[in-house]
Amino acid sequence: MDTKKHYKLYKDGKKWCVMTIAAVASVIGLATTANADDTDTTTSLVQTAQVADNSNVAELPQSNVESVQANSNPANQDIENENLNSSVISDDKSTTPVQPQSAQEKNGWVNENNNWTYYNNGQVTNGRDYTYLPTINGGGHSWYLVDNGVVQSGVQQWAGSYYDFDANNNYQRVDNNYVQSQWGDWYLFGNDGRIQTGVQQWAGTYYYFDPTTYLRVDNDYRQAQWGDWYLFGNDGRILSGLQNWKGQTYYFDPSTFKKVVNSDVTVNGTKYHLDNDGIAKAVSNVDAKVDKALSQRGVPYVWGGNTPAGFDCSGLVQWAYGLGSSYRTTYQQATLGTHKRDVINAPKGSLLFFGSDSAPYHVAISLGNGSYVHAPEPGDVVKIGYSKFFTPSFYITM
After folding, report:
1. Is the pTM of this model over 0.90?
2. Does residue 272 contact residue 249 with C-beta atoms inside 8 Å?
């Protein structure tokens, strides 16, 4: 009885031992599947358990063994797949193809859709840029304005000033030129291409360009940047001589173009006084004519002469008074007014005649107070004479 009991305990102990060994084998099998190439390890452990007690192998459920084997293969497969995938990614990185480049990078000026664009190693400048570049026709360098690389033309603003770029001359900057803009107004550009203001000289005359708008000023009276006043006509050209402006008459010197002030001038036989503001007031026409005659003192006597190259007596009167050809001779001039005899008191500007009423032979222009200016005779010159020495016969007033 005791012997059987001990045997049973022994047999039961063996079963537990075998089961323990099988369980350990299962754990070891799972732990080693990460590095195993196949399921031989699991089989080996099962065989070891069988060697220990073949009679008890059946007591280890077959399903458990199959489960261990089944579980080991997917794990190995996943690891292998993961290793394979890693290997593929690594190979892809090392053999990534270089992206294809364009056959030829754009450089310099390129005509695109009828617009010239400037490229530098395939790139264009962002925004607007005023820059010194090779000319579009390859004839050197010039200044251009580009917008995102595209060349600009016409009057363009840049850095607080304006420039003009000529589309008919490869879009180059315009220097030293008086040009009409794309919107029709006229502007002047200087040596460095900058737009000009104030009074500026161009082609033998002067123009005025407004300092604010840069526009050429037409029909206006403006003060120059140095302080003098000038008048400009309907084509922008500076004016000279007698000119009307806003109901007043001014005189602008033909040489300097400056407005004349505080002076007297004679224009077309009429004398004008210019006040402090330059406003012209006509002085007596008689005075102007007398002054005109006096201006010819020293000119030689020339028979039949009626120009500053030489005068005879009636020729001087005709020129100073602006008389027509119908009043060229002394006799003809004597018919212009009533004959008066108080010659000593003849007023300034009256005509003094010598000889009979019907046949005068000499004429002079009275200066008043018994004096006169005349062209006496051949061999003499235009000069002043006096009634007390050579007394006239009668006079007329014009």
Report:
1. no
2. yes
